[in-house]
Design a protein that fits this description.
Blueprint: E1 2-3, H1 18-21, E2 28-32, H2 39-44, E3 51-53, E4 59-68, E5 73-82, H3 98-114, E6 121-122, E7 140-143, E8 148-150, E9 162-163, H4 167-172, E10 186-187, H5 189-195, E11 197-198, H6 216-221, H7 244-247, H8 254-257, E12 258-262, E13 268-272, E14 276-277, H9 278-285, H10 290-299, H11 303-314, H12 330-350, E15 368-372, E16 385-389, H13 408-423, H14 430-440, H15 452-457, H16 486-505, H17 512-530, H18 549-564, H19 587-590, E17 595-597, H20 601-607, H21 616-620, H22 640-645, E18 652-654, H23 674-688
Antiparallel strand pairs: 1-11, 2-4, 3-4, 4-5, 5-13, 6-13, 7-8, 7-12, 9-10, 14-15, 15-16, 17-18
């Protein structure tokens, strides 16, 4: 019990998160995710809430859902919640205080509020102050036995405890001031005002703390004194709980059943839930299986990341995550996806380069998250993702003496992520990659470009091989890399080298826009190789029953008329091309059009394509002949001289086009013989690949 002369400096009334998470009276509420649905399992955990990530030294990222009054999940969210204790090391030259952390949260709130048009953050009305600032929520405790949240009361008077912001009061009690340290204390302002004495409580005791200071166990066990009181107990669940006797008996079970969700008042930001951490996403697009990653993370006690992977497995989202995983182009696809990830990360960081300057704590790959599309779409799972950086920044920790130098630290960070993304896999670790990068690149930072071709072709050094982009580089199923693709791989590695060198050498000529244009050009080059038009070779069936040459041609033209002239009842030779929307060709053009082979019927049976297998593309490139030509019973054979002159087009004949009714004057018509035509055109067929777009018919000419 501390006696103090100065009265408490009462803080503004803080909102309570209980009003958002209580299941009574709310049509919609915030439900915190637990590590298990079994109450018996929950009681065994010291902290049973699902922590997705705790790598940030200032905040934990937790999972929650917005649910209806029937407990139906509406939307999954992430809660970025202030930690009880800051995990930053104190530095006398650059001290970090509670005031700095407050400022950090306020700046983060303004940043995400300004970009709230993308729906990435949900703002609760109670947490907005009169000056539009972010308000902290009251301390929040949880009873695992009854699964109830409540704000911790004072063990003496039963009114809510508050955080002490009065430096004079703290110093007078032998404690560290709030504004110039990282220590925080709970106290009862009502008791201090009424009887001029109060207890102070901390989350954890330190060696140098005075003996009068109490921790969370002392606070929770002290609630036994409230059970005999009849006032101020409406919000204290233990007063009506049937288990109160066993909790506050000699066994003191209350200290193990009641835990602080947040011992001190805490800032909180609500984000749209993401699908997976970027680190795990990079492993998956490299070819790792979610089950294998789960086993690895279970060993590391990363329950939050395991939960994300299990969601992908249970919802069968990995059914078809790639386009080319069963082809030799899988290398190009993985490289394209990884460069797309790096491009999004670079744009995100470049947009905040004024924040990410050394020394800061805001850059970490652990804080990068990926949102995958859960619904089926036109693109595979990994081709439709969005990158998000969930943190609170750290620019508030800069002092006035900190030089405003160009943000080379951010470029160096991007460079390290670049090589992590391309080279870390099951076989070689982050330590191996960074050691090799340091020995090959960092030792000569003056070189903006390195000859990675030498590293790739070095048989004694396998680390820079393009196969390392795969999770399992020794797997022969997906590690095929064509020699022609190595130049693309070299360009990708060299771009990472440029980032590292820009950060290490403080390159004043560095231009972010130029780098992004170069990266986009590399991505387009890879995409063009992935989706380049392929030359399709159509194999002709071995047998093709053919009757006479006239009937074969007639049947083809009837089929064309059926497709193009639906609704017409006239015979094919009664319909003019203009009536079918086709421009009538000039007669001189017709004389240069159709080539029909005179191969024997035996060869014909082997090579001719059945009429029913002609596709639409071939039909559109076929010249329509009138039925007058089919009444002719014989074909004019090619002379032996013509055959010798056209060795590239063997055994061919010409059919003259039908004559068009015109005035008898034909002086301006030019007669072109088949010999002359073949001699003139045989070389042209080779040059412009005309035969590839012409339907070659092989009628039986044995019968005359």
């Amino acid at each position: 019990m501390i006696m103090n002369e100065p009265k408490s400096e009462k803080k503004m009334n803080m909102p309570s998160l209980v009003s958002y998470i209580a299941n009574k009276g709310n049509k919609f509420r915030l439900k915190l995710s637990m590590v298990s649905k079994d109450p018996l399992v929950i009681e065994k955990f010291l902290f049973p809430f699902m922590i997705v990530s705790e790598s940030n030294p200032l905040a934990n990222l937790m999972e929650a859902q917005i649910v209806s009054d029937a407990d139906s999940e509406i939307k999954k969210v992430f809660l970025l919640i202030q930690k009880e204790e800051c995990l930053l090391t104190s530095d006398e030259l650059r001290p970090i205080t509670n005031k700095d952390i407050e400022q950090c949260w306020q700046k983060a709130f303004r940043f995400y509020s300004d970009k709230n048009q993308d729906g990435s953050i949900a703002i609760l009305s109670d947490q907005i102050g009169a000056d539009k600032s972010l308000l902290p929520f009251q301390s929040l405790f949880y009873c695992k036995a009854e699964q109830i949240f409540f704000n911790p009361p004072c063990p003496i008077c039963g009114l809510p405890l508050q955080q002490c912001y009065n430096d004079d009061l703290l110093i007078g009690s032998g404690l560290q001031p709030y504004s110039t340290s990282l220590r925080r204390y709970l106290f009862c302002p009502n008791c201090l005002d009424a009887i001029e004495q109060t207890d102070f409580y901390v989350y954890k005791l330190q060696v140098a703390d005075p003996p009068i200071l109490k921790d969370q166990s002392d606070l929770i066990n002290g609630y036994g004194r409230l059970l005999a009181k009849e006032t101020h107990l409406d919000a204290f669940p233990c007063s009506t709980c049937p288990k109160q006797l066993e909790c506050y008996s000699s066994d003191k079970l209350a200290a193990s059943r009641i835990i602080p969700f947040s011992f001190y008042p805490f800032f909180m930001l609500v984000f749209e839930a993401q699908s997976i951490k970027a680190i795990d996403f990079l492993s998956l697009i490299s070819g790792a299986s979610p089950k294998e990653l789960c086993h690895r993370l279970i060993e590391k006690k990363e329950d939050g990341r395991v939960n994300c992977l299990r969601f992908i497995i249970e919802n069968d989202l990995m059914n078809s995550p790639f386009l080319f995983d069963e082809t030799e182009k899988f290398f190009l696809e993985v490289l394209y996806l990884k460069l797309s990830f790096l491009g999004e990360l670079a744009q995100t960081i470049f947009s905040r380069l004024d924040i990410y300057r050394p020394p800061d704590i805001g850059l970490s790959l652990d804080q990068v998250w990926i949102k995958l599309t859960e619904r089926a779409g036109l693109l595979p799972l990994f081709w439709n993702f969005k990158l998000s950086l969930i943190d609170i920044g750290a620019d508030a920790f800069k002092t006035s003496l900190h030089p405003q130098i160009p943000p080379f630290y951010a470029l160096h960070f991007l460079g390290t992520v670049w090589f992590y993304c391309l080279l870390v896999n099951r076989k070689q670790s982050l330590t191996d990659v960074y050691a090799a990068v340091e020995s090959q690149i960092v030792k000569d930072a003056s070189k903006k470009e390195l000859n990675f071709k030498v590293f790739i072709e070095d048989a004694s050094n396998q680390l820079f091989k393009p196969e390392n982009i795969f999770w399992d580089p020794d797997c022969r199923k997906h590690n095929t890399v064509e020699n022609s693709w190595e130049s693309i791989w070299e360009k990708a590695l060299n771009m990472g080298c440029k980032l590292l060198n820009a950060g290490l050498s403080a390159d004043s000529e560095w231009v972010e826009k130029k780098f992004l244009i170069e990266l986009e050009g590399l991505r387009e080059e890879i995409k063009s190789k992935l989706f380049q038009q392929l030359t399709v070779t159509v194999q002709v069936p071995a047998q093709a029953p053919v009757e006479t040459e006239n009937k074969a041609i007639h049947d083809i033209l009837v089929k064309i008329m059926d497709k193009w002239g639906i609704g017409f009842t006239a015979k094919p030779n009664d319909i003019k091309p203009s009536e079918m929307g086709i421009e009538e060709p000039d007669e001189t053009e017709l004389e240069k059009t159709v080539v029909i082979s005179t191969q024997s019927s035996k060869d014909l049976e082997k090579k001719v394509v059945p009429q029913q297998e002609q596709d639409d593309e071939e039909i559109r490139e076929t010249v329509i002949l009138s039925s007058d030509d089919f009444d002719k019973q014989t074909l004019t054979p090619i002379t032996s001289e013509a055959q010798e002159a056209s060795e590239d087009i063997p055994e061919t004949v010409m059919i003259s086009p039908p004559k068009v009714s015109e005035p008898s004057d034909s002086s301006n018509k030019k007669e072109v013989s088949s010999d002359h035509f073949l001699k003139k055109k045989s070389n042209e067929f080779e040059e412009d690949d005309f035969l590839a777009e012409t339907v070659i018919l092989h009628p039986d000419v044995d019968k005359e």
